[in-house]
Predict the 3D structure of the following.
Amino acid sequence: MTMFEKIWDTHVIATAEGGETLLYIDRCLIHEGSRHAFQMLKERGLAVARPSQVLACSDHYVPSKNRSLGLLGIADEKIRGMVELLEANTREHGVFLFGMHDHRQGILHVVGPEQGITQPGMIIVGGDSHTSTHGAFGNLSFGIGASEVLHTIVTQSLWQRRPKTMRISIDGPLGFGISAKDVILAIIGRIGIGGAAQHVIEYSGSTIAAMSMEQRMTVCNMSIEAGARAGMIAPDETTFAYVEGRPFAPKGDAWRSALSYWKSLPSDAEATFDKQIDLDARDIAPMVTWGTNPEHALPVTDSAPNLSCADTEKRAEIEASLAYMGIEPGTRLTEIEVDRVFIGSCTNARIEDLRAAADVARLGRASIPAVVVPGSTPIKRQAELEGLDRIFTDAGFEWRDAGCSMCTALNGDSIAPGERCASTSNRNFRGRQGPNGRTHLMSPAMAAAAALTGKLTDVRNLLRKG
């Protein structure tokens, strides 16, 4: 059996004639955007079945600056109301909230792993598409809509159609200056934004096995950008060492029992997948996106596509993307100037990401506005203990409080129409970071390099000089 099959099968409650399966859900994760589910809960006079298995975070709508002002730091009345409503809803239903002023507050997909809430073998759902992040721990995690959140919190179960399985194996050592973000962008660039549609991806191979948990989370985070239902990585000693001792992790006999089960989860050697893709890590270079979806990813040493593509439909897509991005066909990517930099998001705002960006920031000074937003308050504190905040501020970067910030373009954290942003987030759709804004996705080190030079830059050149 595959790891997916082992987890899915142990969570089946019932199977309908139409092919849908009722699954037991271990965790439901929510944020301010889950207000619709609570509204429906109220309208129908229902209650949360197991509040201890529902966890909430204030992340999308909290400000990343002026946090000392509390709710008054949120200028927009509607946005402020969203934060207040989450506090009221969770208080009414006994749901645990990592709220705006909690010392553990942060982005939902950072806080869960950090607190030991995310564990192997579970099925975790969340009112956010990037719930796939949690699959890095050897579980099945995926995003759901408001009506599905309602069903989950009322019944602790959810109807789902069984997806297909895909294994993506990456082997070999990563080259100098290459990160997990480069790996996932290379994968999406190869298979496309629909390449894993209707599949759950299991990432495997020596490259994945050598990654830290933070790097694995980056890879699984963007599985949704390849069209996948979820991304998974088998739990191993790296996983167990990360989880052990965290506040919500099992303790004592419960830990030993859990560990025994977790070790049984990896796919069997004889397991078969519906689709198999193999990559050589030595072929992966520092990646950037040039267009308007994550599939538009190329090595930074390349040039933007020309219009000689034989496929008429593809040519039209490329032409429209280049026009929106304001890039001439065939332009060398390293010639593209950027207006601002964002280092943050549930993809790349963990301590290892901040260290990688700081290693570049210390080599010069930002020539354009650059913002650094930690993924959680504990990460912010850790970075400050290590002096990373001073490295950033000395280099002209702005150091912020934890939250989603410019990834979702809220609380004024957005780019102006026509501006170009080098971003460590996960989506570069039209207007994602602000109306008519232009986003280039890349790793934290690459984003820091862009801040120093004011354009898309091969970070390896700076690191070698440094």
About this structure: Residues 3-161 form a domain with the Aconitase; domain 3 fold (CATH 3.30.499.10). Residues 63 and 69 are 10 Å apart (CA to CA).
